[in-house]
Amino acid sequence: xxxxxxxxxxxxxxxxxxxxxxxxxxxxxxxxxxxxxxxxxxxxxxxxxxxxxxxxxxxxxxxxxxxxxxxxxxxxxxxxxxxxxxxxxxxxxxxxxxxxxxxxxxxxxxxxxxxxxxxxxxxxxxxxxxxxxxxxxxxxxxxxxxxxxxxxxxxxxxxxxxxxxxxxxxxxxxxxxxxxxxxxxxxxxxxxxxxxxxxxxxxxxxxxxxxxxxxxxxxxxxxxxxxxxxxxxxxxxxxxxxxxxxxxxxxxxxxxxxxxxxxxxxxxxxxxxxxxxxxxxxxxxxxxxxxxxxxxxxxxxx
Length: 302
What we know:
- The chain is built from ten helices and eleven strands.
- It is of the alpha/beta class.
- It folds into two domains: about 1-145 and about 225-300, 2-enoyl-CoA Hydratase, Chain A, domain 1 (Alpha-Beta Complex), CATH 3.90.226.10; about 150-220, no CATH class.
- The strands form two sheets. Strands 1, 2, 3, 4, 5, 6, 8, 9 and 10 form a nine-stranded mixed β-sheet that branches. It has a two-stranded antiparallel sheet with strand order 7-11.
- α3 links the parallel β3 and β4.
- α2 (about 65-80) runs parallel beside α3 (about 95-110).
- The chain is elongated, with a radius of gyration of 22 Å.
- It starts with a strand and ends with a strand.
């Protein structure tokens, strides 16, 4: 895991901020300097006394990215060097189960230290669910907020397969095994079962929003129509606490922790091969892969 100071901050991220609650003893600073000379970056795992920023960007899927965020939340929770954390959110949501996993990880983090969410572009569906772990939620005035709902979708291809002369033979044990298979139409029993699962996901979503926003479940259900709102509208509806950008969210988190409003983005350091492949393929290919995974690897999306 590495952390990087913001581009407009040229100070040493390992040095304590002026007036910080976490001053370093001279001997300890000397040791850090020696280690830094031998192993560059070793002592900068988390800059002391700075608000850590976790980036929740792009679709949420059950892939390595979600696991990295969960591991990152655990490390930040256990680190004594990090006084507070901001979730930098720009995501349309995705897998319902992966979104729930993120919420649980962020709730554990928020129980240990101040956690603030900042919705910069989109904080919808599963991404909004994950934000329920935060003590305060800020949104840009024109950010997309909400989409409280669940959908299960998948292609049905039996007529297309008939047209091109393809047949699929099933051998199964278990009456509902193969539910959702695209090569045949679903049965009434399968359709009813899938709807029950969607309803259960939806009820859990409503319950978590009611808890996170201190609303009644009845009020949340009035808002949980799947629709979206701009940040300013979301504020009036009680879905966010304040209109503000990421910098303002950092100020709020720092005030909660009693430290200067300085921040450092953090992430899990990926293996060298993975980083090289990501650079070679480019961000567009990565975005396409994320979208395909979100759409086809998990039927139930929030």
